[in-house]
Q: What sequence folds into this?
């Protein structure tokens, strides 16, 4: 456990150092811009490592939940734990996130700590990290596009659509299947299963927010299209009158 604690402290120090360097070299963009760069880097790194764990190193999380943690799984969790502690502190200090995101970070930290302390179910934690972080680059891209004034474009539309589709597929569909495999397997501890249920419920909370966003955006697009269609009809009518 001492080595794990040292590893977490080193990773936390690494994320803080990266953020500090970005602020010093890229200060004109502000604190949130640089923090989101760190978030983007963590998302890409976490997805790459956990994808390798799930698809190459193994075991397959759907068939082998509750197995002993491997060194690579431990490394992935330690890296992400250091990041989540950093980002949680940043969000609390700058008061940028609401209770749902803070609950997500809190559950992620507690879940990783539990998995590391038990020494098992690392493959499930890595699978959850993969499913959670795979949409992260799109979420950050959306924010950066807004800051650059390019969100209202075809690129912004593509990012939104891809984010919603990927979130629904990974968090709800694949996540639901993962939770089912976790619950019916006799290997994972009961507390791990409870954590899986809590994370899946939180995914549905996010899903409700995303559904509301998608509805509002579709309504706005429909009204815009309807106004353009009405204007085009009036113009054609005026042209015939002339």
A:
């Amino acid at each position: 456990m001492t080595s794990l604690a040292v590893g977490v402290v080193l990773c936390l120090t690494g994320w803080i150092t990266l953020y500090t360097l970005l602020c010093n070299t890229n200060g004109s963009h502000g604190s949130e811009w640089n923090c989101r760069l760190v978030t983007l880097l963590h998302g890409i790194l976490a997805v790459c490592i956990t994808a390798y764990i799930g698809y190459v190193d193994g075991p397959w999380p759907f068939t082998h939940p509750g197995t002993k943690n491997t060194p690579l799984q431990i490394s992935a969790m330690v890296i992400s734990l250091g990041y989540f502690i950093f980002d949680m502190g940043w969000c609390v200090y700058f008061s940028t996130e609401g209770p749902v995101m803070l609950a997500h970070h809190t559950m992620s930290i507690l879940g990783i700590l539990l998995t590391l302390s038990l020494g098992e179910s690392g493959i499930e934690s890595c699978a959850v990290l993969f499913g959670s972080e795979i949409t992260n680059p799109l979420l950050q891209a959306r924010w950066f596009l807004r800051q650059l004034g390019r969100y209202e474009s075809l690129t912004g539309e593509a990012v939104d659509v891809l984010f919603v589709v990927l979130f629904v597929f990974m968090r709800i569909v694949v996540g639901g299947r993962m939770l089912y495999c976790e619950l019916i397997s006799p290997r994972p501890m009961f507390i791990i299963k409870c954590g899986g249920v809590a994370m899946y419920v939180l995914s549905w909370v996010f899903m409700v927010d995303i559904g509301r966003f998608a509805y509002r955006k579709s309504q706005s697009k429909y009204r815009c299209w309807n106004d353009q269609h009405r204007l085009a009809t009036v113009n054609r009518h005026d042209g015939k009158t002339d």
About this structure: The chain has a mean pLDDT of 90. Helices lie at 2-25, 31-57, 71-94, 99-118, 122-133, 136-147, 154-184, 190-241. Residues 50 and 205 are 24 Å apart (CA to CA). Residues 190-241 form the longest helix (52 residues).
